[in-house]
Design goal:
This protein is 43% helix and 15% strand. It is an alpha/beta fold and 434 residues long. The radius of gyration is 29 Å and the shape is elongated. Bound molecules: adenosine-5'-diphosphate and magnesium ion.
Length: 434
């Protein structure tokens, strides 16, 4: 039986109830009419700004096309944003003015953005885009071009990023993104790698492809960081003769040398940084000077707050990636925007690249195929030497060496973390600084 039948019945037998219901309905229609009217007739204020409209569910900032709900902090309507951007571009570019520009705009239906996929594999992306990853062109994921609305790859030069930071709540794909980046570099074979993997076994498949065995304890991490700091100082000496050289690739070009870039991948860096001030100090040294000498770090960590990762270290990370985060402040401190709190898919990240304004929303690639790894390589084994360092420092001090000489002898360089360490061990003894 249809609705009309019941309504007729209701009108006959409960006329009062029926009348009341009609009134409510009419009221509702009036409210909706008013709401539509108010949305259509919003006058700009004195500064020509349009203000915020509310349609009963979402708030819409009519100036920047941002959309808010009571529950979600900030979302951006991508189609509106894209239309807006194109409109501005056309107005700015065209001689025929706004009227012509408006005519040239495609209909909104033509603009449907290609939605980002929720799952892409590294192999599939490389095949579809005919892309061969390398140190100078590493693939970060798939993104939507904001002008054309089409899917495209986001990639970049590790020499340009130097250091990278991947953050996000546990379980959203930090380790997988580090793994995808590392695997590309292992296969490309155009740089050396080092791995720190504290308890999570992210890089296990590439264990025999690093320059050194995977560092999986804080002690080994310290040993590895020190060796890299030493390597950096060795490179500094070699490059000192060429003051005009700013990058490793330039140095190689000028001298004909083949010094290889090194990328240190470090998962769960926030845990390690919280554990040891020495690791924090060494990471600061590495990220502070690595740029020129082709030694880069890619850190993954859940809680990269300022007390965990010194802001200097963070500041040196050219490439920043945030997967879903719970805390807006954390998101802001990494990518200068709170928007990572609105991400919800695994492997979906907001990325900030050096020298490029704005954020890229990217679906990170998953590595499914490991059969194309090259043969294992010979590795340099490092001994954790924390205990013996103390003894050596005290011995050398006994022999009358200065702090600077001791730093040089034990750590291969003076200043920075080495100086701090020597200071710490010798505190309370009398010794000359030079
Ligand atoms: N790029 C991705 N695309 C789709 N799913 C992913 C992606 N990266 C990770 N995941 C899913 O999320 C889970 C957790 O990823 P993981 O990298 O271990 O997270 P985290 O290191 O941030 O804790 C994976 O087991 C996988 O199921
Ligand atoms: Mg992880």
């Amino acid at each position: 039986m249809n609705r009309k039948f019941w309504l007729t019945l209701a009108r006959r037998f409960t006329p009062k109830l029926y009348a009341a219901r009609r009134l409510v309905e009419l009221d509702d229609i009036e409210v909706q009419r008013k709401r539509a009217h108010s949305l259509m007739h919003i006058a700009p204020d004195a500064n020509a700004r349009l203000g915020v409209a509310f349609d009963g569910e979402t708030f819409r900032n009519l100036d920047d096309r941002a959309v808010f709900t009571m529950l979600q902090n900030v979302a951006v309507d991508p189609i509106m944003q894209q239309l807006d951007r194109m409109e501005r571009l056309l107005i700015a570019a065209g001689p025929s003015g706004a009227q012509k520009a408006a005519e040239m705009l495609p209909a909104q239906s033509d603009l449907a953005l290609s939605p980002l996929p929720q799952y892409v594999t590294l192999a599939n992306l490389c095949q579809r885009y005919n892309f061969a990853p390398s140190y100078h062109n590493i693939l970060l994921g798939e993104t939507v071009n904001q002008v054309t609305g089409k899917l495209e790859l986001l990639s970049g030069d590790m020499e340009n990023f130097v250091h990278a930071l991947v953050t996000g709540m546990t379980g959203y794909g930090k380790s997988w993104q580090l793994k995808a980046m590392a695997k590309q570099l292992v296969v490309a074979g155009d740089c050396d790698l080092a791995f720190v993997d504290y308890g999570v076994n992210t890089f296990g498949r590439m264990a025999r492809h690093g320059l050194y065995p995977i560092a999986d304890t804080p002690e080994m991490t310290i040993a590895l960081f020190r060796v890299l700091v030493q390597e950096m100082h060795r490179r500094r000496e070699a490059m000192a003769e060429y003051p005009e050289v700013e990058k490793l690739s330039q140095y190689n070009q000028v001298t004909g040398d083949t010094m290889r870039p090194i990328v240190l991948f470090c998962d769960e860096a926030s845990v390690l940084f919280d554990k040891s001030s020495e690791i924090r100090g060494l990471a600061r040294d590495l990220t502070g000077m690595g740029r020129k000498y082709g030694i880069g770090c890619a850190f993954g960590g859940t809680d990269m707050k300022v007390t965990t990762m010194p802001s200097e270290t963070r500041g040196n990370c050219g490439l920043r990636m945030a997967l879903c985060l719970a805390e807006p402040q954390l998101s802001r401190s990494i990518i200068h925007s709170t928007a990572a709190v609105n991400l919800s898919d695994k492997g979906r990240a907001l990325m900030r690249l050096p020298g490029i304004a704005g954020l890229f929303e990217v679906q990170c690639p998953v590595v499914e195929n490991w059969s194309d790894l090259p043969g294992e390589r010979e590795q340099i084994t490092l001994q954790p030497e924390q205990q013996t360092d103390r003894k050596r420092i005290l011995d050398l001090h006994e022999q009358g060496m200065s702090k600077r000489q001791i730093s040089q002898a034990v750590y291969g360089y003076a200043g920075g973390a080495a100086h701090g360490k020597v200071n710490e061990i010798l505190s309370g003894t009398t010794v000359s600084d030079e």
